Amino acid sequence: MKVGMDQISFYTSQYFLDLKTLAEARGVDPDKYVLGIGQEKMGIPPPDEDVVTMAASAAFPLKEKGALDGVETLLFATESGIDQSKAAGLFVHGLLNLPERCRVVELKQACYSATVALRMAMGLVTMRPQSKVLVIASDVARYELGSPGESTQGCGAVAFTISADPQLLAIDPEAGFYAADVMDFWRPNYLSEALVDGKFSTLVYIRALKAAWKQYAEESGRSLEDFARFCYHIPFTRMAAKAHQKLSRGISDEELEKVIGESLIYSREAGNCYAASLYVGLASLLDNAAEDLSEKRIGLYSYGSGCVGEFFSGVVQPGYRRALLTAAHQKLLAGRTELTFQQYEDIYHYGIPTDGGKHDFAQYRTGPFRFAGIREHKRIYERA
Ligand code: HMG
User: Fold this and answer.
1) Which of 36, 60, 137, 264 could cysteine-pair with 32, CB 3.0–4.6 Å?
2) Which domains can be identified in the chain, with CATH numbers?
3) Contact (Cβ atoms closer than 8 angstroms) between residue 238 and residue 37
4) Taking all residues of the chain, what is their mean pLDDT, rounded to a whole number?
């Protein structure tokens, strides 16, 4: 029985900052961001958008097309948690009116957690092939203003379903994975922005990749030539390019562009989406590949700082294009509103009130759901 990804939907905020605007404000050569980092824009969530509204907005099109019928479990992957106890997925469960007979849990391991969610989902579906699992990864990447990480911010969510006889990607059983206790990137509970040892983080990302790939290759007997495309965790698109150059030494620029280029298009516009980033890359690849990828094998590398890395793979299913939301994804990215630098900084400084009082948030552009305010320390969400 084939088990894997049946549907995928991507959402990012309706606002972005152009990295040329950031470069000008910070006195940096714009080429550093556009060429050196490989990013053009970063998604910025307004005060009434958070990981819950982005997650629900990503999953909503799947609900509308009936793709969530049969979902028995919702796994919510994030490192931008909004509560120390309640799973963010329960707010999404309510907004999407999912059935009561549904397990809901939140998973965390930096940018890696959606991948363990995927594998747990495969186990659940293998045991009950008539059921589905909804995995949602949703995150806001935030670093200190003026820090080296600032240009690698972003936000977004990906919702995907795992089922038997999937329409998009049948996931292979083999995987190589690696863990090490390192401090390359972290966010203490009392901070709203991540701390990072930037250069070190890029080295650990590659170290984990090499270990995970070696194990995967030994277990599967496959070599790099067995893959039509690769998707990497994308903190910024040059990182994915560098990673693939490490695995495939001496690869030409043309070949590099062919095997990873289509997977980088959405991330260049949305920025780092942490747990969602690898899957933003997969959505970008499936939506933008000019070549029909049916029956082709894709290699995927997931990395979460701290750190865990995993290399795994899947085979694209015939007719996969019929299940894609390509037009909706492209319309979303094309229709966003550009922020001025001042607006970006104002939004950055907007803090969620912590006094337990009654607060209504101003209405910005969002997807179908918005974070309307706070009452007695309770978050209030509503249809936009
Ligand atoms: P930096 O010090 O600002 O940048 O930090 P740099 O000086 O290293 O320059 C970056 C690149 O731009 C270099 O290219 C420069 O040469 C080039 P490279 O040598 O690397 O090939 N450059 C230029 N190119 C063209 N024209 C110019 C120009 N100037 C310079 N004029 C850094 C960069 C990535 C460290 C920083 O942005 C950062 O700390 N980001 C956050 C951490 C991060 O994204 N790490 C990635 C790996 S860890 C990970 O992926 C996990 C993560 O997603 C979190 C999670 O798991 O939850 C982050």
Assistant:
1) 36
2) 3-383 (3.40.47.10)
3) yes
4) 98
Task: Give dist(CA 227, CA 32) in Å, integer.
Answer: 31
Average pLDDT over residues 4-31: 98
Cβ(78)–Cβ(139) under 8 Å? Answer: yes
Helices and strands of the chain, counted as H and E runs? 12, 17
How much is the pTM? 0.98
Does residue 307 carry a catalytic annotation? no
The pLDDT tens digits for 74-126 are: 999 999 999 999 999 999 999 999 999 999 999 999 999 999 999 999 999 99
- Report long-range pairs for 356-364 (Cβ below 8 Å, ≥24 apart): 361/47, 361/48, 362/47, 362/48, 363/48, 364/14, 364/15, 364/46, 364/47, 364/48, 364/49
Is residue 280 within 8 A of residue 267, CB to CB? The reply is yes
Can you tell me the distance from the alpha carbon of 155 to that of 7, in angstroms, rounded to the nearest whole number?
Answer: 21
Catalytic residue list contains 233: yes
**Band of pLDDT at residue 163, cut at 50, 70 and 90:** very high
Q: How many Cβ atoms sit within 10 Å of the Cβ of residue 183?
A: 14
Q: Tell me the C-alpha distance between 201 and 59, whole Å.
A: 31
pLDDT tens digits, one per residue of 267-276: 999 999 999 9
Closest CA to 152 of 330, 19, 306: 19
Q: Within 10 A of 369 (CB to CB), how many other CB atoms are there?
A: 25
Ligand 1 pocket at CB < 6 A? 29, 31-32, 35-37, 79, 110-111, 148-149, 151-152, 185, 196, 198-199, 201-202, 205, 233, 235-236, 239, 272, 274, 303-305
Residues in the chain: 384
- C-alpha angle 362/364/369, rounded to 5°? 100
